[in-house]
């Protein structure tokens, strides 16, 4: 049995995914893990890069979907084919550093969920413009107040889940956009959550996935969870 399954949704991340795979293999040397890339049929050839690395490393697996179907469903599908005792969702753009990936994994003992938090003491964000910071803070504030959550970063895209948690909730999950963590926190209040500080670094190459559609999806998710 694999210990850690790292699920990485991708769309047009050819340059980033190559660097991520190299960095993770170095940082997690000696760890029992697999990496599952869920690619939404990227026109830039992301899947071909992953296939090349998969030939050299059997821990790398690839799922290519028919089109751009969304981050939330990509994570769910990746978790569905994972073999690990813990499932970790990670961005492909290197905004989650390999060193923080290791720290999140090492903090799993006794926790149902480990959140890589930008907003707990010691966490920080590098490279975001003011507009992006404001949007993020508003999303965090809405999530915490609307659902009475105590965690500092309930909309983080960087979290580790115990396998049993996902299996118990999978039939209840219907993710909109990329806020899977928020949905799980709201639908399962008794979880033991460990939140650790991370340094979130804005992507250096490619385009951000945050757009007006994702903001609308976040509002839809909050409305649906609330009612």
Q: Which helices and strands appear, and what pairs or packs with what?
A:
Layout lengths: L3 E7 L3 H14 L5 E7 L6 H11 L3 E5 L6 H10 L5 E4 L8 H9 L6 E5 L6 E3 L3 H18 L11 E4 H7 L10 H8 L5 E5 L1 E3 L10 H15 L1
Parallel strand pairs: 1-2, 1-4, 2-3, 5-8, 6-9
Antiparallel strand pairs: 4-7, 5-7
Helix pairs in contact: 1-2, 1-4
Structure described in brief:
With 227 residues, the protein is α/β, with parallel strands linked by helices. The protein contains eight helices and nine strands.
Which structural traits does this protein have?
single chain; 227 residues; two-stranded parallel ribbon; 8 helices; globular
Residue share in helix: 40-55%
CATH class category label: Alpha Beta
The residue ranges in which pLDDT falls below 50 over 5 or more consecutive positions are none
Strand order across the largest sheet? 3-2-1-4-7-5-8
Give Rg in angstroms: 16 Å
Given the structure, what is the number of helices?
Answer: 8
Structural class: alpha/beta
Mean pLDDT: 89
Number of domains: 1
Order of helices and strands: EHEHEHEHEEHEHHEEH
Largest sheet: 7 strands, mixed
What gap, in angstroms, lies between the N and C termini? 39 Å
CATH homologous superfamily name? Spore Coat Polysaccharide Biosynthesis Protein SpsA, Chain A
CATH architecture group name = Alpha-Beta Complex
């Amino acid at each position: 049995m694999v210990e850690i399954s790292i699920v990485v949704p991708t769309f047009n991340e050819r340059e980033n995914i190559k660097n991520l795979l190299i960095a993770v293999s170095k940082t997690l040397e000696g760890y029992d893990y697999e990496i599952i890339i869920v690619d939404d049929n990227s026109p830039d050839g992301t899947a071909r890069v992953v296939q090349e690395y998969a030939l050299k490393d059997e821990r790398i697996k690839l799922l290519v979907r028919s089109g751009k179907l969304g981050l939330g469903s990509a994570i769910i599908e990746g978790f569905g084919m994972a073999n690990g005792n813990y499932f970790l969702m990670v961005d492909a753009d290197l905004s989650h550093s390999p060193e923080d990936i290791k720290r999140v994994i090492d903090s799993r003992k006794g926790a149902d969920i480990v959140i890589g938090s930008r907003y707990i003491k010691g966490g920080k964000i590098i490279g975001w413009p003011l507009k992006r910071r404001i949007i993020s803070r508003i999303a965090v504030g809405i999530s915490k107040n609307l659902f009475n959550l105590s965690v500092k970063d309930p909309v983080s895209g960087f979290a580790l889940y115990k396998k049993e948690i996902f299996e118990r909730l999978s039939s209840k999950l219907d993710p909109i956009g990329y806020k899977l963590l928020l949905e799980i926190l709201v639908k399962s209040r008794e979880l033991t959550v460990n939140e650790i500080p991370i340094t979130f670094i804005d992507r250096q190459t490619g385009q951000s996935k945050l757009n007006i559609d994702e903001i609308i999806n976040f509002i839809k998710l909050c409305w649906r969870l609330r009612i």
